[in-house]
Design goal:
Elements: E1 6-10, E2 17-22, H1 35-38, E3 43-48, H2 65-76, E4 84-89, H3 91-105, E5 113-117, H4 135-145, H5 150-153, H6 156-174, E6 188-193, H7 201-204, E7 215-220, H8 226-229, H9 231-250
Parallel strand pairs: 2-3, 2-4, 4-5, 5-6, 6-7
Antiparallel strand pairs: 1-3
GO molecular function: hydrolase activity
Family: Belongs to the thioesterase family.
Domain Thioesterase: 18-240
Length: 251
């Protein structure tokens, strides 16, 4: 696959569908590599690699969700020939929502299911913006989010390299706000961390106002980054859901 936007982490001979995974702010496709051993082998795992990280580190990160979703859509639209699912965590869920909007508007085959993990709904504005802060204050804020390893936060040279990408991601995510969002007609599963104070269950329930299709909710043990701390519990939910959806396709 000669596509900088996608890494096919696995391709099995008996795959019935593809799961596209979109990372959180500051994350790369590497956060999903462990999923291959936990995901059922009838699912191909396609990891989205955004500009500014991993093999695309030399490219500038994109701080505008319209532009980013437009480019991502153009890159992956040839890969919708068989059943597929889209998973996005936090910022990745925001991008996944925008991507599904474009897929629906283009009248292309829709995902069997959209999985939104710890993702703030578009009609809820972010209240504590940080992307504009000076470097020292921004790094201090990162420490409170527990999403960046201490050894990276304490490495000034490395942080200087990563900050443009991190700030671009935070700007994109913190400015994600649509008071009258476009409804999407895609079955959706919304996942909530039981101790997530950034995107609590009450806030996530507002996704039901945006999803004009079946919208269900599940809780995963942990805080905002339960994707990292409760990976096995998360994959149990995802495996169960994906297999149930595939049974509907083959019925």
């Amino acid at each position: 696959m000669n596509n900088p936007w996608l890494t096919l982490a696995s391709q099995t001979s008996n795959a019935q569908a593809t799961l596209f995974c979109l990372p959180y702010a500051g994350g790369s496709s590497a956060i999903f590599h462990r999923w291959r051993v936990l995901l059922k082998d009838n699912i191909d795992l396609a990891l989205v690699q955004l500009p500014g990280r991993g093999a695309r580190f030399s490219e500038p990160a994109i701080n505008d969700i319209e532009l980013l979703s437009e480019q991502l859509f153009a890159a992956i639209r040839p890969h919708f020939s068989k059943p597929y699912f889209i998973f996005g965590h936090s910022m990745g869920g925001m991008l996944a929502y925008e991507l599904v909007k474009r897929i629906e508007q283009a009248h292309l085959p829709m995902p069997q299911q959209l999985i939104l993990s710890a993702t703030r709904p578009p009609q809820v504005a972010y209240q504590d913006k940080t992307y504009h802060l000076p470097q020292a204050e921004f790094v201090e804020k990162l420490k409170t989010l527990n999403g960046t390893p201490d050894e990276i936060l304490q490495n000034k040279e490395l942080m200087a390299l990563l900050l443009p990408m991190l700030k671009a991601d935070f700007e994109l995510a913190e400015n994600f706000y649509q008071p009258s969002p476009t409804k999407i007609h895609c079955p959706t599963h919304v996942l909530c961390g039981t101790q997530d104070t950034r995107v609590p269950k009450k806030m996530l329930s507002k996704w039901s106002e945006v999803i004009a299709a079946n919208c269900q909710f599940s809780e995963i043990p942990g805080g905002h980054l339960f994707l990292e701390t409760a990976t096995e519990a998360l994959l149990r939910v995802i495996n169960t859901e994906l297999q149930a959806q595939l049974e509907k396709v083959s019925a």
